[in-house]
Hints:
Layout: E1 2-6, E2 10-15, H1 31-43, E3 52-53, E4 62-68, H2 71-82, E5 87-94, E6 102-112, E7 117-121, E8 129-140, E9 145-151, H3 158-165, E10 189-197, E11 204-208, H4 216-219, E12 221-222
Parallel strand pairs: 4-10
Antiparallel strand pairs: 1-2, 2-4, 3-4, 5-9, 5-10, 6-7, 6-8, 8-9, 8-12, 10-11
Amino acid sequence: xxxxxxxxxxxxxxxxxxxxxxxxxxxxxxxxxxxxxxxxxxxxxxxxxxxxxxxxxxxxxxxxxxxxxxxxxxxxxxxxxxxxxxxxxxxxxxxxxxxxxxxxxxxxxxxxxxxxxxxxxxxxxxxxxxxxxxxxxxxxxxxxxxxxxxxxxxxxxxxxxxxxxxxxxxxxxxxxxxxxxxxxxxxxxxxxxxxxxxxxxxxxxxxxxxxxxxxxxxxxxxx
Length: 223
């Protein structure tokens, strides 16, 4: 975990792939607890530390996660995320290159709870949710493309599912059609940048996550 921004009301960290944001059935220590401990030690806080989880990243994904440090910030951030006022940009490394260097993908996504997987359809289906993202190719190496994704909706596994539906599964993402896993179990998807108006101070916040340690992120040159 690396802290990229903090004040009295919010803290933004860059999570490593493999970390879970909130506790689940695995029993592994979640990032939320790590952040609580960091705050407790740094500020010498007695008793229980308040920390609100406002959104999540899939376990194999790395990058930016926002937490609320006060109930006021939590309420306002929840509303901002729900209404699309937090602008999230992701970077993905894919083996295949999109036919068009830039475009908008619109699908109807159906989530399968048992498989923990989502399926994308071109036409509306029962129980489906509309999913929209904008992508553009921003870099390349000899074998891979670097795609920047701007989410316009927030659906389960949306980027993984929609890029795969376009024929560009994310490197290492076996669940969505990648031929091989990454050695560390990650997928090559990074929550790279976040922009929003601070829920309390109203100042503009824009933060970026550092690139993961995998040297491929350094090899994929920006176009």
